[in-house]
Specification:
This protein has twelve helices and eleven strands. It has helices spanning 2-22, 24-46, 50-59, 70-83, 108-115, 155-169, 190-198, 243-251, 254-262, 275-287, 319-326, 368-387, and strands spanning 94-101, 122-128, 174-181, 184-186, 203-206, 240-242, 292-294, 298-299, 330-334, 340-344, 351-353. The strands form four sheets. It has a four-stranded mixed beta sheet, with helices on both faces. The protein has a three-stranded mixed beta sheet with strand order 4-11-8. Strand 9 (330-334) and strand 10 form a beta hairpin. Helix 4 packs antiparallel against helix 8 (243-251) and helix 9 runs antiparallel to helix 10 (275-287). The radius of gyration is 27 Å and the shape is globular. The N and C termini lie far apart (68 Å). The relative contact order is 0.12. It binds 2-acetamido-2-deoxy-beta-D-glucopyranose (NAG) (3 copies). It is found in: Membrane. InterPro entries: BC10-like (IPR044174), Glyco_trans_14 (IPR003406).
Length: 388
């Protein structure tokens, strides 16, 4: 239809041309209109409406000089579409709390207290990879999702994260997705956490560059051409992501497959790589670097410089310790060349992973006395935060 009209229009123009030449008045009008159009075009070029250009310019890093592969181009189109979808916040917006645990959750009662009175603003999902959990709190009953075995350091860890996200994304009210371990305890009250996460456009994914043996040494050239070594990043597994980023994680197949095949324990040349520490930091560093905070809302104490974070005994759990943790405002990254890198960070140490008695299992066997001490100290802490 449109095409037809265009043809008609140019036919008419062709017919009226001879008459134009003979009328100087019309000629002047044409000149005026033409110069007006030229001014509009120049104006539009100099001052483009920001709405149309900025989303595309903002989110994507410069395209590499080489030609993109077919899969890469497809990924970029999907990611761009997801990232430019506006965020919808409503009264019924919820936060998904996703527990990745080997079995029973030791801190259910503590979390119950955290959630109390906030029904309709949260949803709970539990992925128990070893044994069926026994739930002591009614709000956890019926929240187990289908799960598979998780082996430490392998892609099965990422698979479990994606499974949790896919389940939680089914609820369209879920706007933010927090990954938690069985040893996480809440350090702020619900309102504080809800307002903080709903009030930001960022995802909290830990992300840093580590040139040493536990960082870029793990990179494999087999990830070329899509993942170059300069983009390889590291970070702790415990993330909290906004809805668009959650969608990106489950939509990604290209980078997921690269990491599944070429970032794993016992690679051909005898090196080890752990997808749960590198996959998400690397992909988001490449695809939406300004969309992530580069730090995690979950505090883990790596200061002992060992393979596993600091473990706590019941006697360690004091109000002062919890206060210290909630007031942390710098993130510390100890890279494997033994350098300490600090970055200012927001005041949201939301949870704390109080690990971890048996280092070789993917579980954290938190002892009973520790749970008891935590429960008491944390309840006091939650009350303190509530009353301040
Ligand atoms: C988040 O993004 C929206 C849309 O781009 C913007 O209007 C809003 O101010 C941003 N919020 C924050 C806290 O940056
Ligand atoms: C996170 O780090 C990247 C560089 O890797 C930077 O471009 C980005 O702005 C940082 N994010 C924030 C929120 O500062
Ligand atoms: C808390 O922080 C203060 C000041 O940095 C420090 O002196 C104290 O030992 C810390 N206490 C605990 C229990 O970590």
């Amino acid at each position: 239809m449109k095409l037809h009209q265009v043809w008609q229009f140019s036919d008419m123009k062709a017919v009226s041309l001879p008459r134009l030449r003979t009328s100087p008045k019309r000629h002047a009008w044409i000149l005026v209109i033409a110069s007006f159009i030229a001014i509009v075009i120049v104006w539009a070029y100099l001052y483009p409406p920001p709405r149309y250009t900025s989303p595309i310019r903002d989110w994507l890093p410069a395209e590499p000089a080489r030609e993109l592969t077919d899969e890469e181009r497809a990924s970029r189109v999907v990611f761009r579409q997801i990232l430019t979808t506006p965020i919808v916040r409503s009264k019924s917006s919820k936060i998904a709390f996703m527990f990745l645990t080997p079995g029973t959750l030791p801190f259910e009662r503590l979390w119950e207290k955290f959630f109390e009175g906030h029904e309709g603003r949260y949803t709970i999902y539990v992925h128990a990879s070893r044994e069926k959990p026994e739930h002591v709190s009614p709000i956890f009953v019926g929240r187990d999702i289908h799960s598979e075995k998780v082996t430490w350091g392998t892609i099965s860890m990422v698979d479990a994260e994606r499974r949790l996200l896919a389940n939680a994304l089914q609820d369209i009210d879920n706007q933010h997705f927090v990954l938690l371990s069985d040893s996480c305890v809440p350090l702020h009250n619900f309102d504080y956490v809800y307002d903080y996460l709903m009030g930001t456009n960022l995802s909290f994914i830990d992300c840093f560059y580590d040139p040493g043996p536990h960082g870029n040494f793990r990179y494999s050239q087999n990830m070329l051409p899509e993942v170059i070594e300069a983009d390889f990043r590291k970070g702790s597994q415990w993330f909290s992501v906004k809805r668009q980023h959650a969608l990106m994680i489950i939509a990604d197949s290209l980078y997921y497959t690269k990491f599944k095949l070429h970032c794993r324990p016992g690679m051909e040349d005898g090196r080890n790589c752990y997808a749960d520490e590198h996959y998400l930091p690397t992909v988001f560093h490449m695809m939406d670097p300004d969309g992530i905070a580069n730090w995690s809302v979950t505090h883990v104490d790596w200061s002992e410089g060992k393979w596993h974070p600091k473990a706590y005994r019941a006697n360690d759990i004091t109000l002062e310790l919890l206060k210290n943790i909630t007031s942390i405002d710098m993130s510390y990254h100890v890279t494997s060349d033994s350098k300490v890198h600090t970055l200012p960070r927001g005041h949201l140490v939301m949870t704390w992973r109080a690990d971890r008695a048996s280092p070789l299992s993917s579980s954290s066997s938190v002892s009973c006395s520790l749970v008891g001490a935590f429960r008491q100290a944390c309840c006091r802490q939650l009350r303190r935060v509530e009353s301040s």
